[in-house]
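Subject: for your reference before the review

Hello V.,

The reviewers asked for a structural picture of the protein, and I figured it would be easier to keep everything in one thread rather than splitting it across files. Below is the amino acid sequence we used in the manuscript, unchanged from the supplementary table.
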Amino acid sequence: CWSTVVHSDTPTSSPAIVCQPRVLLLDEPLSALDAHLREQMQVELKRLQSRLGTTFVMVTHDQTEALSISDRIVVMNKGLIEQIAPPAILYDRPATKFVASFIGTMNLLQSRFVGRDGERLRFAAGELALEAVSDTGEAPAAGDTRTIGVRPEDLLATTEAADGTAPARVSGVVFHGRTLRLHAELGQGTSIIIDAPRRADGFQFSVGDVAHIRLRRGANCPLLTN
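And here is what came back from the structure prediction:
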């Protein structure tokens, strides 16, 4: 079992493994490695842990590393535990604003509650229509404001306006290989980040363009607390 402690604030472990401990503490063992070698070692450590059957507890401030190799992650903030969960739950359903902003990239959008469709709660962040699911099953009062977390990959960007889209002016474009990360602003100056797949025709958004964005159908947007 992997249990990784991730906080915001390495040598090899061979001598400790010889002793066959029930629990092995690793304090940022991969921090001095370059990115390519670090990824290789993540795979090797996972294989080693599986073969030995020893519980590895690894301290790291690298969120990607924690998500890649852990069975369970403990997120700490100022010495206090914010959330304990498997990587997928932590990424998709962060319990607090801190966890949402610390694990991966997350847009934190102040949104107004506008209605309910079954378990789905409908919100509006300006012109952008959002949907969220409440872990408690309770809905806010009409017109109440809540913070909705939206991952950049859960937003779609087009060049033309359509029903359900909201205009956002592009202020920055970052090349990420298969995707372009768009930094943009919704109405009233709300910043938002969108991961847009690169198009086969070579088109890409440029600074100053207006992207029309909407939420991807089926996106799992958490309703966040403090």
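For the response letter, the relevant points are probably these. The chain has two domains: 23-102, 107-224. Residues 7-12 have pLDDT under 50 and may be disordered.

Happy to draft the paragraph if you're swamped.

O.
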